[in-house]
From TrEMBL:
The gene is ahcY. This is Adenosylhomocysteinase. GO terms for cellular component: cytosol. May play a key role in the regulation of the intracellular concentration of adenosylhomocysteine. Belongs to the adenosylhomocysteinase family. Pathway: Amino-acid biosynthesis; L-homocysteine biosynthesis; L-homocysteine from S-adenosyl-L-homocysteine: step 1/1. Binds 1 NAD(+) per subunit. It comes from Salinibacter ruber. It is found in: Cytoplasm.
Length: 425
């Protein structure tokens, strides 16, 4: 393990050159973020501000980190999931001078040790994926909150945690729910999760998707994306849900809908995308076919109850990278991918750069807004906030322009008609 106190702790600094090539590839696919870098590099609006981040260490994240740095920020970073850090990317960032503490295969103690190192010097801003950094500040270093002017949250699970804190009056500084921006959840969550989850399954199994019974637990944005991609590859898609309206949507989108108890007997491949614990439990594993493949694409591994699976098993072994075979007491084998961690990052590279371009542009703009508010004494209250609509629209417009796509605009007369409640039949 390469370790330089106060600067970085990564797996192998010798991987830096390979990581740098992958970062440069991501830059070529992230024109919105690169345009923001070019626009604000001279002005350096983040000069004098430290941003502590806890987010998957991927090539796309590296483009965000280096964009923040190019615009003046001091950055300290850790990975937000034990299996999602890409060691060559961590090495490239460390080699370039970024303070980073991240490596693939962290245990729980190391995971929180890395977070703690990023806040040894209190930050002005926090950037989260899952809210573990924000929660660490609030639970272990509440005095630090007075120094922090704001933060942002990248993913659905984290936003749910933060809204619960907000509702209980426990949030100590304002946080932008980046996940809830339309240019994030309707692209990153749907298209990004859909494609990268299938990518992770294929890398870990090399299995055939076509003709398989593919069970998706949860039909939110992420589950819908996975179901759409699986169906497009020829799978027979089955959705399980707890919310009636989402179950109806899945039905009308052409998927079978049933309970997990019923689906467990039918599925060949299972993916959980709910944000809830114990979605697949011991009783479900016992019902599965011989050779069933089980994966999770939610932020935490609690969606699969692997403790109950272990208790029901007589043997477990890794048969491929990120693919663990459990032989149960009934003689049947099931295969769990990425040890139940989010399969698109544990077994693949995460979302495509093109969708992360918009997600991370939202992150950049959210932090820019927080800094500008701080400097103009127009700070937000200690609550969770949505990304402003005009910011969301601006990012979509830039993305379209970089794709060479032009759209229509309303005329003045149409603008007037849109708000003219007297216009009738």
């Amino acid at each position: 393990m390469d370790h330089k106190e106060g600067h970085y702790k990564v797996r192998d600094l010798g991987l830096a050159d390979e990581g740098r090539k992958r970062i440069e590839w991501a830059e070529s696919r992230m024109p919105v973020l690169m345009e923001l870098r070019e626009e604000f590099a001279d002005e350096k609006p983040f000069e004098g501000y430290k941003i502590s981040g806890c987010l998957h260490v991927t090539k796309e994240t590296a483009v965000l980190v280096e964009t923040l740095q190019a615009c003046g920020a001091e950055v300290a970073w850790s990975g937000c999931n034990p299996l999602s850090t890409q060691d060559d990317i961590a090495a490239a960032l460390a080699n370039g001078g970024t303070e980073i503490y991240a490596w693939h295969g962290l245990d729980t103690e190391d995971f929180y040790w890395c977070i703690e190192r990023t806040i040894d010097t209190p930050p002005h801003l926090t950037l989260d994926d899952g809210a573990d950094l924000i929660f660490t500040v609030h639970s272990d270093h509440p005095e630090m909150a007075d120094h922090i002017i704001g933060g942002s949250e990248e993913t659905t699970t984290g936003v749910h945690r933060l809204r619960a804190m907000d509702n209980d009056g426990e949030l100590q500084y304002p946080v932008y729910a980046v996940n809830d921006a339309e240019t994030k959840w309707d692209f990153d969550n749907v298209y990004g999760t859909g494609q990268s989850t299938i990518d992770g399954i294929l890398r870990a199994t090399s299995t055939m998707i076509a003709g398989k019974n593919f069970v998706i637990a949860g039909y939110g944005h992420c589950g819908r994306g996975v179901a759409t991609r699986a169906k497009g590859m020829g799978a027979n898609t089955i959705v399980t849900e707890v919310k009636p309206a989402k179950a109806l949507k899945a039905t009308l989108d052409g998927h079978q809908v049933m309970s997990m108890d019923e689906a467990a007997e039918k599925g060949d491949i299972f993916v959980t995308a709910t944000g809830m614990k114990d979605v697949i439990r011991g009783r479900h594993f016992l019902k599965m076919k011989e050779g069933a493949i089980v994966a999770n694409t939610g932020h935490y591994d609690v969606e699969l109850n692997l403790e109950e699976l272990a208790e029901l098993s007589t043997d477990a072994r890794e048969v491929r990278e990120n693919n663990r075979e459990y032989t149960m007491e009934n003689g049947k084998r099931v295969y769990v991918l990425g040890d139940g961690r989010l399969v698109n990052l544990a077994a693949a590279e995460g979302h495509p750069s093109e969708v992360m371009d918009m997600s991370f542009a939202n992150q950049f703009r959210a932090h820019l807004d927080l800094v500008q508010r701080h400097e103009s004494d127009a700070m937000l209250e200690d609550k969770v906030y949505d990304i402003p609509q005009d910011m969301d629209d601006e990012i979509a417009e830039v993305k379209l322009r970089t794709m060479g796509i032009q759209i229509d605009a309303l005329s003045d007369e149409q603008e007037h008609y849109a708000t003219d409640y007297s216009a009738g039949t």
